[in-house]
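Kindly inspect this today.
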Amino acid sequence: MRERPLPPPARAIPVALCTSPLAQNPASDPCAQPFMLDASGRAYFTFATREPDRGVQIDMRSTAFDSVVELLGPLAPGSPVELAPPIDSNDDGAGEFDARINRVLPQPGEYVVLARSYSGGTGEYWVAVRAFEPPPARPAQPLVLGETIESAFTEGAIEPFHAYALTGRSGQSLVVDVLSPLDLTLEAGLAASVFNAVDQAERGFASVAYNDDTCGLNPQLKLRFEGDQDIVVRVAVTGSTGAAGAYSIAVKEDDGIACAE
């Protein structure tokens, strides 16, 4: 029986990093390039960074279908774009049915953008890849048992997450609750240092727990400590950055109550 030949590797369109401000109408956005999504439902693009810790904002906008954008890389020399390791993805991070990813890339190299539709739509869309200088890292704020912290993601700020430092004792079971009208996520992890705890390039952070919508749109983490341990708790907007709004975060002993009110 003759083996079926492998499909040819996907073609990728090179795009340049842009620094012009975002325009409300993609047709008048100097960074946005128009394309047509065919029946395959996906298209690949590549861009290159020449220095470490480069911030990039990737926008995919369309009035014809629900946009989904994925960031992959760095791409190994000679490797097909489909095999680039995934980094991030987003559906509606730019509002309505438009997608957006904000990310700090720790190492230079060639990266891949996969633009696709959520449910097989076709038609015109725009893709833009912008470069930005990463904002300074916010210090990890101590998260104290029994206390509530009020905070907010601010409009226009590029904040991949807010970081909190939490200390657990051996045998302790703690619950971390976030309340907000925003759709937020919670992630707990180990960090090599305070700097690593808030490093947007993701160096030195090892995730140990993640939650999205346990309590409606509100996330909740239940953490059991087998020994004394310092961890980092991250609060992030679901999907990608850009949304603005207030939230509260609190930690308590696990009392068996499912969700905070």
In short: The chain has a mean pLDDT of 83. The CA atoms of residues 138 and 198 lie 6 Å apart. The longest helix spans residues 194-197.
